[in-house]
Every structure is written in C-alpha cells, then in structure tokens.
Write a structure and sequence with these properties.
mainly alpha; two-stranded antiparallel ribbon; 2 strands; 9% strand; disordered N terminus
C-alpha cells in the first residue's frame, strides 16, 4: 500500500493531513514521506507530542510492526524512548535509510561539486 493512497486526518482549527507510511524499505519513499510530514507539522497549533503521536499513528504494515517491536524494546530497556517528532525522524532514518544510500548520495554530491569547479 502506497502512502499516497491514504492519509490520516487531524483537525483542530486548521487541517493537517498526515500520509500513511508502510515502511516498504524504499529509501526515496521514506524521505518523501518525512518531507511531507515535516511540511504538515509546520502548523504552529501542533505541539511536539501531537506531531509525534500523529506520525506514529500513520504507520501501517511493516512500519507498524517495527514500531510495535521498538516500543516493546523500550519497555524492557533495550532501546531509548523516543519522545518527539525530531527524535522519531532520527530513529526512522537509522531504520529506513540504509548507510549505503547515504554514502552514495554524499559521493554524488561531491562529484557534482567537482564537475562544477
């Protein structure tokens, strides 16, 4: 299931649509989801706990299983608790963005800089 097909709706005085995330191991899909959620969370009425809660509620399929297991690990002291959206993003990047992707992206950027010089 693609995150584009569904979204979680939250409304106070403003409307916020959080796209679902299924954790399909596609790095680009994760980064696109993160960027979209960041934009939605620019709304000043949302506190950090609400952002965190909305993001975790948007998890489906593998992402939901991963998060449930991570919460279990926190309860039995194997992992540090995640308390806000920024911490969640760091945790998710460790899980869903492979180190090889980061290295390749950095190399591409360095090559681009060399070509431009």
């Amino acid at each position: 299931m693609s995150f584009e097909s569904k979204s979680l709706y939250y409304s106070t005085e403003t409307e916020v649509y959080v796209p679902y995330f299924d954790g399909n191991k596609n790095v680009e899909a994760y980064l696109e989801w993160e960027t979209k959620v960041d934009k939605f969370f620019e709304k000043p009425q949302l506190d950090e706990f609400s952002k965190f809660s909305m993001a975790t509620l948007s998890f489906q399929e593998y992402a939901r299983s991963w998060w449930t297991q991570r919460e279990t690990d926190v309860r039995i002291d194997r992992k540090l608790e995640v308390l806000n959206w920024d911490e969640l993003k760091m945790c998710m990047r460790r899980k869903f963005v492979l180190p090889s992707y980061v290295r390749k992206k950095k190399l591409r950027e360095e090559m681009k800089e060399l070509v431009e010089k």
